[in-house]
Each structure stands twice: as structure tokens, then as C-alpha cells.
From TrEMBL:
Belongs to the short-chain dehydrogenases/reductases (SDR) family. It comes from the Eukaryota. InterPro entries: KR_dom (IPR057326), NAD(P)-bd_dom_sf (IPR036291), SDR_fam (IPR002347). One of its GO terms (molecular function) is oxidoreductase activity, acting on the CH-OH group of donors, NAD or NADP as acceptor. It comes from Cladonia borealis. Keywords: Membrane, Oxidoreductase, Transmembrane, Transmembrane helix. Signal peptide: none annotated. This is Ketoreductase domain-containing protein.
Length: 365
């Protein structure tokens, strides 16, 4: 009885993403769109009939869109690289749980060499467990990161896939942010990715070997949010960093593909302090399962492609919010509740037995 009462209402599963998916595999699929005018011709509908002309034009537009979309991706990201999973070594930061944990499990089930760098791992020298090699590492500490990276390369070989996923979020009002909070957030979320990317790219560039670099940012990089000034700024820095690195690699090393991941709210520990919203807000901006995002990332890596992974649907177009009048932006922000969504909590005991303070949560995204 209790489980029935606590289960979400049926309409919570009805979202814009579900609607768009259904449309994409039905009337907006080229094959099914082409069937409509063919069926009309099967019942002897004249070529000059308005119904035949409209349905034929619709089928042509749908097919042309799919073709142009593929052409656009090829121009933007180049030809895909060949993937041989026997030769690939995957490194995932922040891979003990959440999105990183889902990715690590998927690769491990495939029998791929997987190394997880996480401050929650047991030791720096690596521990093999369930097909994964876990290394305790604070990626925000460069000396520790370089030392652990050396151990990793010795044991597993040169990494060919790097997923920069580790992040911390320190939810405090701007005026309560201390110097240490800001430095730790940027050190883990932004600066660590520079160091990791350099360690990752150096051997690949020398050997002219293919690889895949994945940057995990957030939709909040475009929006910003109250009580998350350092987190959102560090994630915005990642988008600029990713675009610059992608531009350099396109000319210097096209065999190295880059993927930018900018999801909305995930169902992970990192977002447990986010308030639930109304049905309409959930329809346009649903909470996304970390496993769903992980599957999209693995699919793109598996194809050897570069590109964007933005879930839910609004995350792909959120940058367009900036072209709207500021007043309209303000109204939409108020309606969405983004500035009041993150609940700042006080802990009973601070870290290391210090005085109580608001603590940030470690996670991904």
C-alpha cells in the first residue's frame, strides 16, 4: 500500500522528450513519411491531388532534413575514427557513482580496460573490482594526479578515451563563498580538466593515434543559478575550453574526436537537494536518468564520432534563451524555478569536526 502511494503519478512520465521521440520514429521518420504518398497512389490518387502533393512534399522535407543533418555532422566533426575495443583504454574521473559509475559499468561489461579516478576509491595504486581498475585520486591536486596517471599508464597502457566527469558543487549564497570554496570548485571542475587533457593528448599526438575526449559540462553553464555561482561558472568555463580544444584538434589531430556533454538535472546524488517542480515544468525539463545519458555517450564513442550529448531536449536549445529580450528571460526563469531549485542545507557536523557549515556535494555533471 505504501509503495502504491509513493509511486509517481502516471503523467510524470509524459514529457516533451517522449513526445519528440515518438514523432521521430513515426511520422517524421523518412520511411514512414514516404509511405503516405505511396499509399495514396495505391488507391489511385491523382498526382495533381492536393493530398498527394502535400504528403509528397512532406516526405521530401523529412528525408532532406535527415540527409542535411548527416552532412552537417560530417562537416562539423569530420569522419569517424575506427574503434577497436581490444586496444582501447578508458579513463573516467569521478567514476565511483552517478553518471561516471554508469559509464564505467557499461565499459567493464564489454570487457574494455577501464580506469576510474575518484577520491572515494580505496588506494592510489589501483584496485581491480568488477572489471574496473579504481585509483584514489583528488583530480584537483596536480601532483597527486600526475603520480596516479603514471601508475595507470604503467598498468593498463596509454589511455585512448578520457571522460572528464568529476565535479563538486558547493551550494552557498555568493556572499558566503570562501576563497577555499571557490578554489576547490574551479580546481576540480575546470583546472583539473586542463591537466588531464594535457596528460591524455601528449602521447596520442606523438604517436598520431586516434582517441576520444569527453567533456562533461552542464545546462547550468548557460543558465546560471542562485546559490551555485562557482559551480555554474566552472561549468561555463568547460564549454569554452572544449570549443577551443576541439578547434585546435580539428586541424592538428582530426583522428582525436571530442564530445561535449551538457545534461539537465540527473537522478544522481549531486542533484538530491533540488526541489521537485510542477507537472508543466517537468514536461519541458524532466529529470534524466544517468544511465540514459551514459548510453548516449557510449553510442557516440562506439561509432567513433564527435558531437554533442544534450538531454533532455531543451538542453540542446537552451543557448537560444540568450537572444530573447531580457524581460522575457526573467519571466521564463521565474516560471522554471531554476533560481530557487537548489536547497541549501546546514550540516550537523562540519568536515573534520569543524564548526557546522553548508557542505558541497561531490558528484558529476
Amino acid at each position: 500500500m505504501e509503495s502504491a502511494l509513493s509511486s509517481p503519478p502516471w503523467h510524470s512520465h509524459l514529457t516533451l522528450d517522449l513526445l519528440l521521440h515518438v514523432l521521430s520514429v513515426t511520422i517524421f521518420h523518412p520511411f514512414l513519411a514516404a509511405l503516405i504518398p505511396l499509399c495514396l497512389r495505391a488507391i489511385a490518387t491523382p498526382y495533381n491531388s492536393p493530398s498527394f502533393i502535400l504528403t509528397a512534399a512532406f516526405a521530401i522535407c523529412v528525408s532532406l532534413y535527415r540527409v542535411l543533418d548527416d552532412v552537417n555532422k560530417r562537416i562539423a566533426y569530420g569522419a569517424p575514427r575506427e574503434i577497436n575495443w581490444e586496444d582501447e583504454v578508458v579513463v573516467i574521473t569521478g567514476g565511483v557513482g552517478g553518471l561516471g559509475g554508469c559509464l564505467a559499468e557499461i565499459f567493464a561489461l564489454r570487457g574494455v580496460e577501464v580506469a576510474v579516478l575518484d577520491i572515494a576509491a580505496s588506494n592510489e595504486d589501483g584496485e581491480e573490482k568488477e572489471g574496473m581498475n579504481s585509483y584514489r585520486c583528488d583530480v584537483g591536486n596536480y601532483e597527486e594526479l600526475e603520480r596516479v596517471w603514471g601508475h595507470l599508464v604503467e598498468e593498463l597502457g596509454t589511455p585512448t578515451i578520457l571522460i572528464n566527469n568529476a565535479a563538486v558543487v558547493n551550494g552557498k549564497p555568493f556572499m558566503e563563498m570562501r576563497k577555499e570554496d571557490v578554489e576547490r570548485t574551479f580546481g576540480t571542475n575546470s583546472i583539473a580538466q586542463y591537466h588531464l587533457t594535457r596528460l591524455f593528448l601528449e602521447p596520442l599526438l606523438k604517436a598520431q593515434k586516434g582517441g576520444t575526449l569527453v567533456t562533461v559540462s552542464s545546462v547550468l553553464a548557460h543558465l546560471g543559478a542562485s546559490n551555485l555561482s562557482a559551480y555554474t561558472a566552472s561549468k561555463a568555463a568547460l564549454i569554452a575550453y572544449h570549443n577551443s580544444v576541439t578547434a585546435e584538434l580539428a586541424d592538428m589531430a582530426p583522428q582525436i574526436k571530442t564530445i561535449l556533454v551538457a545534461p539537465g538535472q540527473l537522478d544522481t546524488q549531486l542533484f538530491k537537494n533540488v526541489r521537485l517542480r510542477g507537472w508543466l515544468q517537468n514536461f519541458f525539463g524532466p529529470v534524466v536518468a544517468a544511465g540514459e545519458v551514459a548510453v548516449r555517450i557510449v553510442e557516440m564513442i562506439d561509432k567513433g564520432e564527435g558531437g554533442l550529448v544534450c538531454l533532455p531536449a531543451y538542453a540542446r536549445y537552451i543557448a537560444w534563451l540568450g537572444v530573447l529580450p531580457v524581460g522575457v528571460q526573467r519571466v521564463l526563469r521565474g516560471w522554471s524555478g531554476v533560481d530557487g531549485a537548489f536547497v541549501v542545507e546546514k550540516e550537523d557536523v562540519g568536515e573534520g569536526g569543524k564548526s557546522p557549515e553548508r557542505q558541497g556535494k561531490k558528484g558529476e555533471g
